[in-house]
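Internal tracking record. Fields below are filled automatically when a chain is submitted to the structure queue. Please do not edit lines marked as system-generated. If the sequence contains nonstandard residues, flag them in the REMARKS field before resubmitting.
Queue: standard
Priority: normal
Entity type: single polypeptide chain
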Amino acid sequence: MSFKNLDAFKKRLDKRLTTKAHSNAKSAVTRSTMLVQNFAKSSIMAGGTGATVQKYDPSRTHTQSKPLSPPASDTGFLVSQITMDVDVKPNGTVVGQIISAAPYSKHLEFGTVNMTERPFMQPALMKNKRKIQAMFKKGILK
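SYSTEM-GENERATED OUTPUT FOLLOWS
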């Protein structure tokens, strides 16, 4: 097997793996974090599949979620509290976080002694795992 322009290939490869590594990593982490955040929000906004109940203050009907399904949006507060942050540490490590600041988020995600969990963050990550891996592979070869 022979390569044409081996020196040019080596230069491009070196640039991709060293020079552009940090910007490619930040880009991949940002896109991946956004993907999971949007999936989590969409799963909540899709609506419930359980019983429909009458709520008051404000007056409305609400279709609840079934246990082990993502929570169903009622007032939109939970969705409005899901944000993301991408941080580059001094050592070059890139960390992406999705934060749900609603005070009841952990109760929905993990359940309580009185309520079965209605996870929305972990399923969003797991359902996009392959897409995220592909983003990182593509980012390295960019």
